């Protein structure tokens, strides 16, 4: 079976929804940021600070190439993974892209206290969120399914994704 790949901006719930969705569908869960942290022995924020964004994106690309060859996974991607068109194409080859969305205000409320968000550490956080969302908007539109996570519980979001996957015959249950 194809992978289910969660894409979307930071703070939209990819990791928490992905874990729950994987459990529901009895699939292995992979969080790409966590995998890169394990591989490099540093947090995402440390990688950005010490090695730079280019190195981080390079590690993401290598990981995507490995994951694209596997099946039956639920994958939560880093928010910026979609900036690389090759990553999107590889993930789409053997996966169903599910975009998780939320308003800038909700994202701000979810991420404002988190120091592991290196792209938001400088300047006005709300302004940066709006700017990055606009930059990534078209890439997120590559998803077959889009779910707004703003005002729903994790259980409701997982139900909505599962229902969409079943209705479109992406999975059998």
TrEMBL record:
Enzyme class: transferase
Residues that, per the record, bind substrate: 33, 57, 79, 136
Keyword line: Amino-acid biosynthesis, Aromatic amino acid biosynthesis, ATP-binding, Cytoplasm, Kinase, Magnesium, Metal-binding, Nucleotide-binding, Transferase
Pfam families to which the protein is assigned, alphabetical: SKI
Compartments where located: Cytoplasm
Binding site for ATP: 11-16, 117
Known EC number: 2.7.1.71
Listed PROSITE patterns: SHIKIMATE_KINASE
CC annotations in GO: cytosol
Protein's UniProt keywords contain ATP-binding: yes
Cofactor(s) this protein cannot do without: Mg(2+)
Cofactor note as given: Binds 1 Mg(2+) ion per subunit.
UniProt pathway: Metabolic intermediate biosynthesis; chorismate biosynthesis; chorismate from D-erythrose 4-phosphate and phosphoenolpyruvate: step 5/7
Catalyzed reaction equations: shikimate + ATP = 3-phosphoshikimate + ADP + H(+)
Subunit structure: Monomer.
Name of this protein: Shikimate kinase
The organism of origin for this protein: Pelotomaculum schinkii
